[in-house]
Amino acid sequence: MSSIANQDVPEKTPDDSSKLKTFLSILRKFVGVADIASVRFSLPAHLLEPTPNLEYWNYLDRPEAFASIGQSDDPLGRTLEVLRFWFTKDLKYIKGKPCKPYNSTLGEFFRCSWEVDHTLPELPTTSQASIIDASDARNTIGERLKICYLTEQTSHHPPVSAFFIDCPDRGVSARGFDQISAKFTGTSIRVAPGQHNLGIFVNLEHRDHEEYHLTHPAAHLGGLLRGALAISVSDTCYITCAKTRIKVILQYLEEGWIGRAQNKVEGVVFRYDPDKDVITRMKDVPEGDVLVRISGSWHGQVFYTLAGTSDPRVLIDVTPLFPVAKNLPPEENQLSNESRKFWASVTEAILDKRFGQATKLKQDIEERQRQKAAERQKKNETWQPRFFTGAVTPLGRPELTKEGVQALEGVRNGDYKLKESETKGA
């Protein structure tokens, strides 16, 4: 009797300190490994956040900031709108603890949408303009906007996913490949873009298809030894637009050994020649080319100061902002390889604190994927993505297939019906 009754007793929930100890013991095996992200090692379920990677890894924590890009008639104003989006896209790392979601499987996909009934106000770009608080999300137009998102795991070795973001009413879209490279140093994990991750490419249809190329900085996941995980950034990243001939250099500053983390960021917006672009450091930008200087904390307020003035203005204040909830397809319309449904049994077991069962279910999924890969190799078959034209492209700009376009339109129209994939191995 007692053995039967005990089967219904939830397993003891591991506390954060025991989780970190287990995590560290696993990571120590990878000291010296060039890229542990490419190894795709399997973690026990109690160390995972019950969230699919494709759902977790998006850049729309504040979708209204994305929908606001392209409002300004001034090229500099549009650059500042892109910057404002940049500082809101990863709020999850500022407002919550870093976590490890499920590893994506080949052919897994995720789709969702956000609806916003306001956009952020335009930013003044002349010295005579009045100061506008960019964190004041007023309804400047009174329209309800829909932002649609589609992503698919397009490669397993190396692990790469393609994504496409679309706000049709504003003519704003974005695309790119997500891939990370990670190295354990013994005290922290350095996470950087993988070779196929060339950044985010934002396109403004209503501005003669201006394209803004945003590159990712490297980050460090620290606090492993003291049991308080935190992300820090001390790297340089860039935003360029060849059409407007405007470039941004952002420098995330190294934290000091003493005192609280300031999470400081500095930057410069300047005119550049796309055909002779050799400037990579802020100090090398000619003073006469400077349009704006950026300063502040990427955990709080970021300011911009127009050239020739000493009047800092708020670009964005992320202090009151939190990630916005997604709208997902109804459960009955989700396919078997759609992230939420694909991982449903594992998620349910973790939430029920049945960690042993969750680990087994997760391992079963991973073993099935290995078997499918072996079958394809035996038959000399090449797996092809369903919604994107290729696993990766040299330019880092994934193209949608016909089915990908239809899937995005379905998200926009609320018609989520798709057929199960006939692609072998998906």
From TrEMBL:
This is Oxysterol-binding protein-like protein 1. GO terms for molecular function: sterol binding. Residues 367-395 are annotated as: Disordered. It comes from the Eukaryota. It comes from Aspergillus heteromorphus CBS 117.55. Belongs to the OSBP family. Residues 367-381 have a biased composition (Basic and acidic residues). One of its GO terms (cellular component) is membrane. SUPFAM superfamilies: Oxysterol-binding protein-like. PANTHER family: OXYSTEROL-BINDING PROTEIN-LIKE PROTEIN 1, OXYSTEROL-BINDING PROTEIN-RELATED.
